Amino acid sequence: MRYLTSGESHGPKLITIIEGLPAGMPLLAEDINEELARRQKGHGRGRRMQIETDTVEIGGGIRHGYTLGSPVSLIVENNDWKHWTKIMGQDPLDDAEANDIKRKISRPRPGHADLNGAIKYGHRDMRNVLERSSARETTVRVAAGAVAKKLLALLGIKVASHVVEIGGIKSKVADYESIEKLKEITENSPVRCLDEEAGLEMMKAIDEAKANGDSIGGVVEVIVEGMPIGVGSYVHYDRKLDAKLAAAIMSINAFKGVEIGIGFEAARMPGSEVHDEIIWDKETGYSRRTNRLGGLEGGMTNGMPLVVRGVMKPIPTLYKPLKSVDIDTKEEFTASIERSDSCAVPAASVVAEHAVAWELASAIVDQFYSDRFEGLVANIAEHNRHAREF
Amino acid sequence: MRYLTSGESHGPKLITIIEGLPAGMPLLAEDINEELARRQKGHGRGRRMQIETDTVEIGGGIRHGYTLGSPVSLIVENNDWKHWTKIMGQDPLDDAEANDIKRKISRPRPGHADLNGAIKYGHRDMRNVLERSSARETTVRVAAGAVAKKLLALLGIKVASHVVEIGGIKSKVADYESIEKLKEITENSPVRCLDEEAGLEMMKAIDEAKANGDSIGGVVEVIVEGMPIGVGSYVHYDRKLDAKLAAAIMSINAFKGVEIGIGFEAARMPGSEVHDEIIWDKETGYSRRTNRLGGLEGGMTNGMPLVVRGVMKPIPTLYKPLKSVDIDTKEEFTASIERSDSCAVPAASVVAEHAVAWELASAIVDQFYSDRFEGLVANIAEHNRHAREF
Amino acid sequence: MRYLTSGESHGPKLITIIEGLPAGMPLLAEDINEELARRQKGHGRGRRMQIETDTVEIGGGIRHGYTLGSPVSLIVENNDWKHWTKIMGQDPLDDAEANDIKRKISRPRPGHADLNGAIKYGHRDMRNVLERSSARETTVRVAAGAVAKKLLALLGIKVASHVVEIGGIKSKVADYESIEKLKEITENSPVRCLDEEAGLEMMKAIDEAKANGDSIGGVVEVIVEGMPIGVGSYVHYDRKLDAKLAAAIMSINAFKGVEIGIGFEAARMPGSEVHDEIIWDKETGYSRRTNRLGGLEGGMTNGMPLVVRGVMKPIPTLYKPLKSVDIDTKEEFTASIERSDSCAVPAASVVAEHAVAWELASAIVDQFYSDRFEGLVANIAEHNRHAREF
Amino acid sequence: MRYLTSGESHGPKLITIIEGLPAGMPLLAEDINEELARRQKGHGRGRRMQIETDTVEIGGGIRHGYTLGSPVSLIVENNDWKHWTKIMGQDPLDDAEANDIKRKISRPRPGHADLNGAIKYGHRDMRNVLERSSARETTVRVAAGAVAKKLLALLGIKVASHVVEIGGIKSKVADYESIEKLKEITENSPVRCLDEEAGLEMMKAIDEAKANGDSIGGVVEVIVEGMPIGVGSYVHYDRKLDAKLAAAIMSINAFKGVEIGIGFEAARMPGSEVHDEIIWDKETGYSRRTNRLGGLEGGMTNGMPLVVRGVMKPIPTLYKPLKSVDIDTKEEFTASIERSDSCAVPAASVVAEHAVAWELASAIVDQFYSDRFEGLVANIAEHNRHAREF
């Protein structure tokens, strides 16, 4: 499976084309729209999230509620576009128009792609960079991920996410009854936190940051239950599933770290307390007494829940300004104030969930027979039987 | 650029083929052998490291000290192979021989690929898994990385690594005079630590773990200076350099996390203290007052030193046994004692250095003109001038 | 560079996303629309070509007439879609609706993807196959190719195509004054033939085939002038440019063969008459006295015009019916009559031109520096100087 | 599946690494050596073929006669290497040695990669090019293909090849009793021709060409029986199996054309005579009354035998010299006489067979479940049942 995305933050539309899906898989626009809505929620979001209510239009690849096997295209209109047709238009400008263009950006913001991107691609108007480097693009990454998540769900694989830290405040609740229960709690928390008390503190921290013209980051955790054993591979470094998940998480805007299972804690624990003892049961086959390694050993799933965490830095668009340099005048300035979120961590946890879902669905489709969806279901059932009886 | 590796831990040889190198680049076997030697050092290594002194034989792609542009093959003989020709031989066995084969493994070790790999590939003798999943394979990853490092060095890009934490003991020294000085200190430290005092404590912790039949992990840091601005890209998620580096680090055996710059600390700091202010100077162009983001913004290099860290869990091969299950008898056992390292973190920092070097060299070769090495040098010089004068 | 396409023949829209274009390259919707119009012309086309006048909408990646470096999305609406919303709709059907759906196809047509595609993807209604396997998809392949052709044109590389054979009638004119002159003649020929007399015979043959309820195929030739020397590579089989061109041509619907330069004639000529003697001139550097090898030696361009031919079989949709089997009843039938073209070779020559243009532009972007379009121009100029002075 | 190859014609060794094979597949060195021997035979070969008797050494990936799932490396020593250690050595030369180096090449041969390759990679000694562009590299392409062919054979898929034309002399026999019988005849023909009489004429033509200091080319045909229906895909142009086969054939040294089924004849036949009527039988399912389309419709297998042809131009190394230009002096010369084959078409048919086998095995492994070889066997059996009962 592969996908490409296109679209700028204030351009006409965001589009993704997904190639390699099985045929005969149930898929509705609602499946995707629900996830897009989840991405737009969260305490700490700015005004834009209210402007846009993202929904997909299906351009191809689906008929009467089922995938055709042909590429699926998903289109999200930018409702804002009507106000930007001049600034972001595709037609050439004459000199008068060019001079007149508003919102030209010569002042790069620290922590953004602005300056590096402008140097790389030779853009003197850095709007050319930020329109694409914007987290707006994650809309269609979520759309592609929603298709992946649907595929996983139909195979009995459950994906969820929650926020475990915001602005230094950590969730003290790590356990959850079931993934359904975890979802129920986090979907009702404005910061997607399992720990109600910590959640309230997080919201307070977000509000304080906002009041200070500042922003805060945090840590999100994605949990996946029901993956077959042995997805991924140890035989070549670029086939390891943990490596792919690390890339997926790190590629989300503003993420600076990723860890699996106990992650960085592994540097502080003795080997005897790090590894998960193997147990066996006639009914269910092999499992582990603990899950410190987060469901991944040797670059493969081991049948335990996947636990992947990523850290998002505070959003760089700041009310509290940082020094920078105008690329035209070379004069120092303090980075301009733009409307912004003070914390996007809850939304980012939804994005992370979908980035992970994509990698898992993709790995499954690559590893198993997948032309016909019912064949995929049968192949995985057979594999699970093989694993159970091994 | 791309490469493949082949070889089992006790098989005849380890091989890598590297495709896509520029032609006319100076390259000697010594360039690679030096790095292989660095990989074999470090306090806490077991006996095997003494048995093998790895050197490469060049099978193709190099003539009279220069790359040809054709694929480079590098071969490392396993000196141990002569003792394993029966157990690891390629020819079929008759039934008597098959029954007689020694070192058959039916007892999966927790924390290894043993069990998942066996289920995935259907191996009842788990030697078939561990021979490949072994960290022995990193020998040729280092060999490929050494070629990449040479390319970077010839472009004035310096790569180094050091150990910042072992078994909970953290290096207190973060600053270094220059990358050359950092190398000088860490190459002379048996744990590759900048902080002499912490280094002594780390060695003590390793010895204690060994005495207890236990093992410990740690955190390594790779530092790269001299990368051109704008390597990587923000335009598509799978072209982001930070994502590629995350995958490279996470794909190293036993790594469970990766972070860039301040990494997970970003969850605890306000936005106003996270981002790096942009400054400009007529001579040198743009730079940053600080380097909290570790040289990567928007999925691209920003001209500051790259700072990438990874965490390695304690080596799972334990003298202090863990419970597991024999796959033949389904009986519980405590994981068998094998000769082993009690800490491989210093060596892993060398591997991480090479994994990072590969990704950077590969990104450079992909992004710039690279058929002729001198053309690559000129193209980068031109790009650096463009960046400086932007 | 890479691209994906999506869309069914009677679905809502055809879309392509192109990723990897240089930034700062001039690009207008007209550049693409002109090529789309060329694809719709040609003696022998059926009614559908009149229904649809294809034009692209740009969804992203272009601003004020220039590429941004971000992915470019191009959308072509199917004007016919309004009549097909029920038959090709994306929403699920209830049982009554499902039974009522018109134009369900249980009768596979010989020479189409119908039956194999239905078996592969498990479709009992073969409309699910033919909607995607239809040559309608070449619309967006031409759109992507038009972007590639524009890039080539801006680098002074000229791409043209003409029809050299239809239904056994061969063009007797092989020489052309210049590529501009070739274009002038072929653009004015309803069968895109350089040889006016042969062109008239071809049209007669097409009309006769139509009158007989039959169809005919032919051979198209793509010519490219101005490629730099050394694009492609001999160092690895999958990097050879001739191999990529062969795949590009063969992947066009209904193509069954491809040849370069003298092609299959090479089996009948002695080596002394096949190869092109090398000459040299102080002003222009190396060239060849002849061009039997069609501009490609050792998997690379040699500076001579590229000459690539492909053969298209007669369109399988026939008025003159062939026997087949209904997949539901397993009864024999004679393949159903559908409106159709009796010859699509002239249009296919336009498609071939764009398939070739894509491969060439892609090879150039991969081989040279290409982040900034002006950098690409400079890099190729420098390379051409190097080649001339070699 | 993927593979890389390394090695120069007179370098130490040729190596291939194959990644992505199923585990548990029987594989012996003999399986490969037999095919390497077939590649070295054929009327018209020069002396070198007698010098080298190629055999593989297995460097990894196989144990006790079965694949491990890990990458397989295959090494072929160049027996000639001992005479070339100075000329092709890897160590740098001092000035005296450099001046003294023999067999430096400044005179490019028409029809070779020499000149373009030298310009591309900046080699003033064109030995740096021809050592890699030499057809010697096809040794390891055959080795990789032999592994693929073994995989196919174990799945009941039979691959064979024969020569259908040499130097204008065409085989008049197109029919064969069975693929086994075809093999029996062609393996005993020095020109691998089904038609004994034509074979004798071909040999005469080869001898005459040799006597004249000339060379001749020809057309080879690869036939494959037993492929499952629906391998490849129509859904995206780069997934079409015919496109992949075209690339594979065209990437063989000296090939200038490829066709499938009736190929270029399709330009001369009416649609009513080109397509293959579909028939059905309760026992065997669907098949075709004829096989004009060579087993491929819509970019997929249709269950009929695959018929793929390629044309090889006469070997450019000539006794009968062609004009060229010395790149140092810029003086005209007539291309130097080297020992050479006067016709390599029979050997090329063996190479083509393996190039095709690789693509098919690779497509099968990608499309079906393939971690465990027995799982692949079961998955294909299940698919074949599905196809039969469709």
TrEMBL record, chains A, B, C, D:
Cofactor(s) needed for function: FMNH2
GO MF annotation terms: chorismate synthase activity; FMN binding
Metabolic or biological pathway, per its Swiss-Prot or TrEMBL entry: Metabolic intermediate biosynthesis; chorismate biosynthesis; chorismate from D-erythrose 4-phosphate and phosphoenolpyruvate: step 7/7
Catalysed reactions, as listed in the record: 5-O-(1-carboxyvinyl)-3-phosphoshikimate = chorismate + phosphate
Cellular component GO terms held in the UniProt record: cytosol
PROSITE patterns found in the cross-reference section: CHORISMATE_SYNTHASE_1, CHORISMATE_SYNTHASE_2, CHORISMATE_SYNTHASE_3
Pfam short name (any one): Chorismate_synt
Spans through the membrane: none
Keyword Nucleotidyltransferase recorded: no
Superkingdom: Bacteria
Keywords: Amino-acid biosynthesis, Aromatic amino acid biosynthesis, FAD, Flavoprotein, FMN, Lyase, NADP
Keyword Lyase part of the UniProt annotation: yes
Binding site for FMN: 132-134, 253-254, 298, 313-317, 339
Cofactor note: Reduced FMN (FMNH(2)).
Gene3D superfamilies in the cross-refs: Chorismate synthase AroC
Residues that hold NADP(+) according to the record: 39, 45
GO BP, sorted A to Z: amino acid biosynthetic process; aromatic amino acid family biosynthetic process; chorismate biosynthetic process
EC number: 4.2.3.5
Protein task: This reaction introduces a second double bond into the aromatic ring system.
Subunit structure: Homotetramer.
UniProt-listed PANTHER family: CHORISMATE SYNTHASE
Family: Belongs to the chorismate synthase family.
Protein name according to UniProt: Chorismate synthase
Organism, scientific name: Niallia alba
